[in-house]
Specification:
- The structure is a homodimer of 172-residue chains.
- The first copy, chain A, is of the alpha+beta class and 172 residues long.
- Chain A is 28% helix and 37% strand.
- Chain A has five helices and nine strands, in the order βααββββββαββαα.
- Chain A has helices at 24-32, 34-40, 103-108, 137-145, 148-164; strands at 13-20, 47-53, 60-66, 72-83, 87-91, 94-95, 99-100, 113-122, 125-134.
- A seven-stranded antiparallel beta sheet of chain A has the order 1-9-8-5-4-3-2. The first copy, chain A, has a two-stranded antiparallel ribbon with strand order 6-7.
- The longest helix of chain A has 17 residues, at 148-164.
- Chains A and B meet through β6, β7 and α3 of A and β6, β7 and α3 of B.
């Protein structure tokens, strides 16, 4: 499948790149299997209380996040690209089936994003690249101020811990 | 590539299905090559004055439509699925590179849509199915009232005429 280049626009995008000491197959499993995703996806003390994944372009990606106090937040998005162990892309700007958001849902969101997780073999494990695209600079800024870098970094730490704990069984 | 089922939701979607007396390869060329698309895409007396196509998921689909009077309208969307001679899907809810729309651009649109064109061999030519998904019933209604059925039907008539005129050269 041809793929658009994952080049970050500094005005509009946020990104995170790191080499993690986890095989590519386990990083992929952590992102694509709900029973694993719920273990690491939200930086503590937030937790992921529900996850639904229909792993195909147009398929549903839904997560529910719960803070120590207050209401839960459910995000329902749509996968755009699924390339086994290489690339996962989804957006919050489309509902499952590539359907546009209902006007009411769209205006209720602080911003929408499209995220790409790219994986590649690297000495010492897996090169992990997250790229998040926003529609305008103010959406990027809002996401950065919500703590993108700390949040996505901490979630990745949790993913690594979960993988090291050996809860995956044999590598796929 | 796995594909979501193209089933119309009568509350939210608009669709058009017809068998046309044109080979699948020519219908595909008419939809995916700008020099052909501009010949039929807008129902007369509207014309298509510009078209840019980057035929891959995430690639740009931009058209400019010009009425007999008044300003031109440019729509810039993004391809979602490209399956040679079978399925073309794109959305106006994402900019190229799967980027969410800028907030200003999103609020300026009367509605957004995701469209699917599915082609299959049929006795007498090609079964042509267009399915257009909207975010809510009011977007569907606005699109229907703009003349979806007449407009998309007339554009398809123009596509058939263009193909019959033999301007494509040899079938691909």
């Amino acid at each position: 499948m041809p793929r658009p280049a994952l080049i970050a626009d500094p005005e509009l995008d946020l990104s995170l790149e790191r080499v993690v000491d986890v095989p590519r197959s386990l990083v992929w499993a952590a992102w694509t299997q709900p029973e694993h995703l719920v273990k690491w996806f939200c930086p503590l003390p937030w937790t992921t209380t529900d996850c639904q994944i229909d792993l195909q372009p147009g398929g549903m990606f839904r997560t529910t996040m719960q803070g120590p106090q207050g209401p839960a937040f459910t995000n329902t998005g749509c996968f755009l690209q699924v390339v086994d162990r290489e690339l996962l892309a989804w957006t919050g700007a489309l509902a499952p089936g590539f359907r546009p958001l209902a006007s009411e849902a769209a205006t209720a969101l602080p911003f929408t994003m499209t995220a790409f997780i790219a994986l590649a073999d690297a000495p010492g494990g897996t090169r992990y690249t997250a790229l998040v695209r926003h529609g305008d600079a103010s959406a990027r800024q809002a996401h950065e101020q919500m703590g993108f870098h700390v949040g996505w970094g901490k979630a990745l730490d949790q993913l690594v811990e979960h993988a090291r704990a050996g809860d995956f069984g044999a590598p796929a």
